[in-house]
What does this fold into?
Amino acid sequence: FRIESMKKLNRRGIFTALAAIVACACGAAVAGDKPYFSNQGRIDFILHCSGCHAQDGRGLEDKGIPALKDQVGYFLRTEGGRAYLMQIPGLLSAGMPDARAADVTNYILARFAGASLPENFVPYTEAEAKRYREIRPADIPGKRRLLATQLGEIGITIR
It folds into this structure.
């Protein structure tokens, strides 16, 4: 048992180190012009989000993982959308502190939102992340459908 546990920890450490190297090498200035962008957010995206949403934010729609690219910012235009982005299951289950949850969400918006990001966007803060993450909606897919309906009512279609 002990040797197997050490092998798992060693593999995890190697994966984490490789992910950090890749994060640093993957276009350091990709979102660097955004004042709310952080390298920690990029690293956390690679470690906790890119497995499902892909490194380019395209998602795996055939498996129910929505695309982030060019649409994630639209949720900020709905009532409840700002909270929703902090309450998605992957972010809640990642086990990261609130400050890092805010950082990774800000990174995602800086990197993938494109024109969908409202001009008046205010970056997430640690306190805001804490407040939103304390609430765990029972039906996240249902909440996403509700927000998609709200967006449809103002002429925005999301995938």
Summary: The two ends are 45 Å apart (CA to CA). Residues 23-32 have pLDDT under 50 and may be disordered.
